[in-house]
From TrEMBL:
<protein>
    <submittedName>
        <fullName>VOC family protein</fullName>
    </submittedName>
</protein>
<dbReference type="Pfam" id="PF00903">
    <property type="entry name" value="Glyoxalase"/>
</dbReference>
<dbReference type="InterPro" id="IPR037523">
    <property type="entry name" value="VOC_core"/>
</dbReference>
<dbReference type="InterPro" id="IPR029068">
    <property type="entry name" value="Glyas_Bleomycin-R_OHBP_Dase"/>
</dbReference>
<dbReference type="InterPro" id="IPR052164">
    <property type="entry name" value="Anthracycline_SecMetBiosynth"/>
</dbReference>
<feature type="domain" description="VOC">
    <location>
        <begin position="4"/>
        <end position="121"/>
    </location>
</feature>
<dbReference type="InterPro" id="IPR004360">
    <property type="entry name" value="Glyas_Fos-R_dOase_dom"/>
</dbReference>
Amino acid sequence: MINTVAWFEIATDDPQGAEKFYGELFGWSFTADEGSAKGGMDYRLVGYPGGDGPKGGVYATGGESPGHAVFSVLVADTGAACARAESLGGQVVFKLLDNPNGPDFAYVRDTSGNLFGLFTPPHLRGAQA
C-alpha cells in the first residue's frame, strides 16, 4: 500500500556476516537480486520461513557508505516525496530516480536526524497517492 512501511534494508561492508547473523537468529535466507546485479550492486533479498516474498534486503556497501538498518516507505512518486520531506525540514541524503534496474529510491533524514528510505517500484511510477 502507498505510504506504508513496506521494506527494510541492512547495509554493511560484511554482507556474509550479516547473512550468518540474521540467518541464524531468525531463519532468514538470502538470494542475489538480479536487477541490482545488472547495475553493479551487490544486493541480497531476504526470504522468510513460510513467507510470501522478500520484504527486505542486505546491501553490500563495499565500504563506500556507512552501515545502517532502515525502514523504507512505499510512495507513489519518490521525487515528489523527497521534495515534500525537504519542505518539511527533512534532508535528502541520496536519491536515484528513473532507475533502469529497479525501483526509484532515496534516503532521507527526518527533522531529528533519523535516516529512512523512500521507494517507488517501476510498476507504480506515476501512480496517484
